Amino acid sequence: MIANITLNLPSVIEFGAGKIGTLPHHLQGFTRVFILVDKPVFTKIEPIAGELEKSGSTVLLSTEVVPEPPIDTLSGLLQTVKLFNPDAVVGVGGGSTMDLAKLLAVLCSGEQQIHEVIGINKLGSRKTRLILAATTSGTGSEVTPIAVLTDTREKLKKGVVSPHLVADVTIVDPELTLALPAPVTAATGMDAMTHCIEAYTNRFAHPVIDNIALQGIRLISENLETAVLAGDNLEARTAMALGSLYGGLCLGPVNTAAVHALAYPLGGEFNVPHGVANSVLLPFVMDFNLPACTEKYAQVARTMGVTIQGSPDSVAKEGIRNIKQLSQRCGIPSGLRQLNIHAGAIPSMAKSAMLVTRLLDNNPRKLELSDAQAIFTAAFNGSAG
Ligand SMILES: [Fe+2]
């Protein structure tokens, strides 16, 4: 029997080259517009801000984005935005920018404090219009009800999950990704791949999302390397943008699992970029999960283009090897050792990861503390698949 599902998505998704040009249309009637923008695309947004001002809006542009945003960064920005009192907030950037914009849009007009909204469904309401435009192909934040912050005191990533974080309008314009540096393209692309794989093999997987996830896996495996090696290839960038959008669509209704849970302490304690942490851990978590979802991993492998004949187990293992090789060809380190993480940190990282129960509960195989330690130990040396 097909399970119930709730799809909480933006009212409008604008997808395609040049679609950032639709931004003024979606801001018609809004008079005070705050735009948070990543520095590399500032020059693309500045003329649009000028256009808005000409049509009578007051616009405040800010590039105050910190990667993997700490709670203090949000707190500082929130003061500025509350003073400006916008009726629309726009986030143009990668996951960090979009997550900040989401929280600013919700918190700027209300009384809730940041610490009160961390967790699931803690947000009261949103009165301010929220528009997001993705400039990386990976996080999927442009279509999710999730924002992630870094608690620098506890050295942990903390999630805010609420339907009020879903944008009114999302713009996915692959032209905005053309200038992305190769390492960011690689890491964000593997993050999107991880979203698709963890949703497809999730304990709460759903047929609606399974199809989207498999299409995402196909697009990313076929196009990531080209996008990394030839960043100005619009065809590969467009395919990656779609693969990433598909990965993002997996997150709200189904979400990720143990790869993301184990990646959290790498980001929180060692500032490893989210996509790199996921990419390094993905094949090792798949090795661990293999007995629990052999057939589904075999399907992942076939979707990636694995054609060998054999048992589901052997096909699945070939798929895990392919994922590791793809990540290496894109220049991502293969083990924790290369990320300057010392082996002595493994017990505390495993303990921190076990706190991320909202994601671990989704994992196809139950994972204990000793399993988390074993996965980190295997990933330390980088010898999966
Ligand atoms: Fe992710």
Tell me about this structure.
There is one protein chain. This protein has two domains: 12-177, Rossmann fold, CATH 3.40.50.1970; 182-381, Dehydroquinate synthase-like, alpha domain (Up-down Bundle), CATH 1.20.1090. 50% of the residues lie in helices and 12% in strands. The protein contains 15 helices and nine strands. It has helices at 23-26, 42-54, 71-84, 95-107, 114-117, 182-200, 207-229, 234-251, 258-270, 274-289, 294-303, 312-329, 346-354, 357-360, 369-381, and strands spanning 12-15, 32-37, 58-62, 88-93, 119-120, 129-134, 146-151, 156-161, 169-172. A six-stranded parallel β-sheet has the order 1-9-6-4-2-3, with helices on both faces. Helix 10 packs across helix 15 (369-381). It is globular and about 65 Å long. The two termini are 34 Å apart. Fe (ii) ion (FE2) binds at residues 191, 195, 260, 274, 278. The site of fe (ii) ion has 5 residues, from helix 6 and helix 10.
Gist of the model:
The chain has 385 residues and is of the alpha/beta class. It is built from 15 helices and 9 strands.
What's the topology here?
Blueprint: E1 12-15, H1 23-26, E2 32-37, H2 42-54, E3 58-62, H3 71-84, E4 88-93, H4 95-107, H5 114-117, E5 119-120, E6 129-134, E7 146-151, E8 156-161, E9 169-172, H6 182-200, H7 207-229, H8 234-251, H9 258-270, H10 274-289, H11 294-303, H12 312-329, H13 346-354, H14 357-360, H15 369-381
Parallel strand pairs: 1-9, 2-3, 2-4, 4-6, 5-8, 6-9
Antiparallel strand pairs: 7-8
Helix pairs in contact: 3-4, 6-7, 6-8, 6-10, 7-8, 9-10, 9-13, 10-12, 10-15, 11-12, 13-15
Bound molecules: fe (ii) ion.
